[in-house]
Specification:
By secondary structure, this protein is of the alpha/beta class. The chain folds into two domains: 4-105, no CATH class; 108-233 and 266-320, Rossmann fold. Helices cover 35% and strands 24% of the residues. The chain has eleven helices and 16 strands. The chain has helices spanning 50-59, 93-103, 106-114, 118-134, 153-160, 172-180, 189-192, 212-222, 239-243, 266-275, 289-306, and strands at residues 4-6, 9-11, 18-21, 24-26, 39-46, 73-79, 85-87, 89-91, 143-147, 164-168, 184-186, 197-203, 223-234, 262-263, 279-281, 314-320. Helix 4 packs across helix 5 (153-160). The radius of gyration is 20 Å and the shape is globular.
Length: 324
């Protein structure tokens, strides 16, 4: 299967890349603004460097060998024109397929959903509930897509609300599982072009694709006039400071080696949507005010006690397609 991956699912290759070594390609340009002569390198370490390799060996439980990553480096670039940060040395299609089909445990990925606690599903319910505040249609009238549907559990929730939902997924294993749950699955970009949607959900996808702008432009083409796309990604705020520490070591964060090849902040994610011709909009608040205040107070109290403020783990923005 050709393609870069997202989460535990695969995406077709997009974007301009250049060969680096047998298993890697290089992304020299900023995908958001196209700049290729106004960038700086924030960090560059071979994947074999203990600061990177120790994390990879532990996180992937020994399923990756050093020889698999020979010739590659954890190289983080920043565009000085727009502020976008990305991994410029990434796995090629073939090895990326291995990452998501072999090096990441499918059983672990599925168990997170199948045996998730109530907070996972209540979160899905809140996300689906937002749709009604953004789309002026009853659920049975609205076409919804989960882009990167994985095992299909978000689609199940949208179905429960009465939406006409489809999942976009290329992984054959996940497709089969989702279809067994009764989910209608679209398994290629060619097939996706034949559909139009009122709402698209994209959860933890855009940090994984090699050319996020082209992917978003393709999705925008499938939105109906007035349609909305929700994009959620890890929060890259503060990453540059972390990378500059003398004792830096790789960890699972917004610039996770091999997987999170794009690092977004609220600002750069908003720029991505604008570059794709979409309008940034505000989502209706559906969480009760007292719950919101309680969550804020908890974070504030922890910052006071520890002296450390950590930004939100994720960024979620909504974009609307305006009429021509």
């Amino acid at each position: 299967m050709a393609g870069l991956q997202f989460g535990t699912e695969a995406l077709p290759m997009y974007g301009r890349t250049e060969p680096v070594s047998t298993n890697f390609v290089h992304r020299p340009k900023c995908d958001l603004c196209g700049s290729d002569d106004n960038t700086t390198i924030l960090l560059s370490k071979p994947f074999s460097d203990p600061a990177v390799w120790d994390f990879l060996e532990q996180y992937y439980e020994g399923r990756i060998r050093k020889v698999d990553l020979e010739g590659g480096s954890f190289k983080i670039a920043k565009c000085l024109a727009c502020g976008f940060i990305w991994q410029s040395c990434i796995l090629n299609d073939t090895v990326m397929d291995r990452l998501y089909s072999e090096w990441i445990s499918a059983d672990w990925s599925l168990d997170k959903k199948r045996y998730g606690d109530s907070s996972l599903f209540s979160g899905y319910a809140r996300q689906v509930e937002i749709i009604a505040g953004l789309i002026s249609k009853k659920p049975y009238e609205a076409d919804v897509l989960d882009f990167g549907a994985g095992w299909g559990y978000w689609c199940l929730m949208a179905n429960a609300f009465g939406y006409k939902v489809k999942g976009f997924e290329i992984s054959a294993e996940r497709n089969a599982y989702a279809r067994n749950l009764g989910i209608a699955v679209i398994d290629s970009f060619d097939a996706l072009k034949n559909h139009k949607f009122d709402f698209i959900n994209s959860e933890q996808v855009f940090e994984h694709v090699s050319s996020p702008l082209q992917v978003l432009q393709s999705l925008a083409d499938t939105l109906k006039e007035g349609g909305v796309i929700r994009i959620a990604v890890p929060n890259g705020q503060g990453i540059e400071k972390e990378l500059s520490k003398p004792d830096w070591k790789a960890t699972k964060n917004a610039i996770h080696p091999l997987e999170h090849i794009n690092c977004f902040t609220r600002h750069t994610l908003a720029d991505l949507g604008q570059a794709a011709g979409l309008e940034l909009i505000s989502a209706p608040l559906i969480i009760r005010r007292e719950e919101s205040l309680k969550a804020y107070a908890k974070v504030f109290l922890k910052a006071v006690i520890t002296g450390i403020y950590r930004p939100a783990r994720g960024v979620t923005l909504f974009f609307r397609k305006q009429g021509l």
